[in-house]
Each structure stands twice: as structure tokens, then as C-alpha cells.
Amino acid sequence: MAVPSGPVTASTDAERAMFDFVDAYDRAYETAALEHGLSVAQACVLGRLTRQIGMRELADELGCDASNITQIIRRLEVRDLVRRLPHPDDRRSRQIVRTPNGTTLYAAFEESFEFARSATANLSAGEQDQLVALLRKALNGTRKPNG
Amino acid sequence: MAVPSGPVTASTDAERAMFDFVDAYDRAYETAALEHGLSVAQACVLGRLTRQIGMRELADELGCDASNITQIIRRLEVRDLVRRLPHPDDRRSRQIVRTPNGTTLYAAFEESFEFARSATANLSAGEQDQLVALLRKALNGTRKPNG
DNA sequence: CTAGATGCTTAATCCAATCAAGCATCTATC
DNA sequence: GATAGATGCTTGATTGGATTAAGCATCTAG
């Protein structure tokens, strides 16, 4: 299990609650991924493939190097979860798509990752709206490392 | 940069807001760690060392294998950020402590990791209380992978 | 036609995580 | 006491993620 990313000594209740929530979210995600033989990175990449997309584009969206994507996609391809199609117009480029296997597996993963669903279900409609507003307001003005 | 752990296609506003928040939090943490030459795991471990603590205890708290801690601590020790003291009563055991260097560096890291502080500062006292209550309520009943 | 940009891959390196073994030490029991 | 098993930690091996530098093929602007 990955190590939790957050301070242990939060100075306020709010910081503590944020950390606890983030930690629970991350752990739930990792657990769900492992249940389906996926790493966190693999699950995340698989989840992005709702449409054909190039390697470069994928790397930009995920904020990491293209060579990183290369190896993640290779591992997914070996398991027949994705396929790399030639780009119709640009022979340098590949279009990545999920295979039916990949789509099925990802659906199963999402079913396992019930964290956000459960968390949402614990709140009334009004509370959900409140939470959304508060989270967005809290985010406002925080530094965004990569766009 | 690590890949974001979360679904891209969130089915509700609330899920989307949760993911955005978690993603921003994780990225801010990683960025702050990198600014001080620390990995996420290293920053996290360093943050736990507010008291003397054994390797076993550390591994349990972080929910990972003891051998994982061994190597993380070794890298921190090489940089004189932590020290491994013999346990007074049990010669198998080590007590890990931060060196003054480690304490200084971690303080600087925490200063850089302003995400939770800024996010909190964006909210009034009343809103903070609301957020804490909502986050805790949302967490209630979600599966807890490791206690 | 060519210089440079672009899309991707490969190889090398570092770190994190996990597993299986192993050593030293401790503890409970005989 | 002796010893069997538990405990604390380390080591080595393996897997995977992330980054960097280098390289190839292709595209595009001039």
C-alpha cells in the first residue's frame, strides 16, 4: 500500500478533515485498482480512454512525460486492454483505444471504486450542493502545479 | 508528475468536485516535496517523525511493508535527515528520530505545502465548520481499506 | 529540399512497493 | 537454563512508475 500523502499534524480541523478525506479517497482508488490487477497509473490511463487519443495528448492530460505513457500503454496492450492504432493522417502518431476487454475491465473497476459514490450517497441533495460549493471555493486561489 | 488518481467521467457534480479536490491536493503535495528534494514517500515519513518511533510501528501506521520503510529511512539517513538509534530495552529494535537537519527541512516543506492552509483560508470560520462536517459525513460508511 | 519541430520509442537510472529469506534478539514454556 | 516460536529489522530479487537523454520517423515551413 502506498504511503499516505499528507501531514500528520494538521493545525486546524479543516486541514485534518481534508487530509483524512484525500487519504481515504486515494486508498480506496488504489485498493479498487489492485482488485482488478491494475496499478493506480494503469487504472487512471484506462479511464481516460473514452475516446481515441494520441500518446502526446494523453501525456499532456496526465501531466507526465510521453515516455512514461509508452510503457504504461505497453503493459496494457500486452494484456489486450488497449490497442494502438495508426493515425489516419500522421504516420508518426498512434491512436490509443480500449479493447472490449479493456472497457469491461474498467467498468468492473469503476464498480469496485465506490468511494465517491458512497461518499456522495451519504449526503442529501442539498448537502451535496453545499459540499461542491465549499470545495470549489476552497480550491479557488490555490496554486495549480500544472495548468 | 504522478498520474491523477481518479475517474475522469464522474457521474455527479459532487463526485467531480471530490476528484478535483483530491487531485489538486495530491499534486500540491508532490510539488512541495520535489521543491525540497523529497519524494512523496520521503516527505510523508519525515512528517511522521515528531517522536521517536520504531520501524515496525512506522510501517504499521503507513500501511506498508517494513522492508519498504527500511529503504526510505536509509535514503533519509544518508542525507542526515533522520538517525536510527538503538532501542534502550530491545536490541533488535531501532528508534528513528529526525536530525535537526531533518526538522528544518520538514518545516520548510510544510511551509511550501500551503495547499491545505490556502484552501482553508479561502473559507470563513463558519464555512470551515460546514466543510468539516460534510467531509466527515461523506466519509462515514465508506470502506476503509486498512483500519 | 532542407532545417527544425513533432510524435513516439528506447535505454538508463532512480525510487517505491512487495515478497521471500534470513539474522539477531526476545519471550514463553518446559 | 534450554529451546521453540515470535518479533524487529534487513537484504535481495522483482515489478512498476517517473524522469532524462538520445534517437528514429515523419511532418511542416521556408
Structural topology:
The structure is a homodimer of 147-residue chains.
Chain A: H1 13-35, H2 40-48, E1 53-54, H3 55-62, H4 66-78, E2 82-86, E3 94-98, H5 100-112, H6 115-121, H7 125-139
Antiparallel strand pairs in A: 1-3, 2-3
Helix pairs in contact in A: 2-4, 3-4
The structure holds a DNA duplex (30 and 30 nucleotides).
Count of helix runs of chain A: 7
Pick out the low-confidence regions of chain A: none
Would you tell me the overall average pLDDT of chain A? 92
Oligomeric nature of the chains: homodimer
How much of the polypeptide of chain A forms β-strand, as a percent range? 5-15%
Summary?
The first copy, chain A, is mostly helical and 147 residues long. The first copy, chain A, has 7 helices and 3 strands. In chain A, strands 1-3-2 form a 3-stranded antiparallel sheet.
Provide an overview of this structure.
- The structure is a homodimer of 147-residue chains.
- By secondary structure, chain A is mainly alpha-helical.
- In chain A, strands 1-3-2 form a 3-stranded antiparallel beta sheet.
- Chain A is 60% helix and 8% strand.
- The model of chain A has no long low-confidence stretch (mean pLDDT 92).
- Chain A contains 7 helices and 3 strands.
- The radius of gyration of chain A is 18 Å and the shape is elongated.
- The interface between A and B is large, with 70 and 70 residues.
- The first copy, chain A, binds a DNA duplex (30 and 30 nucleotides) through helix 2 and helix 4.
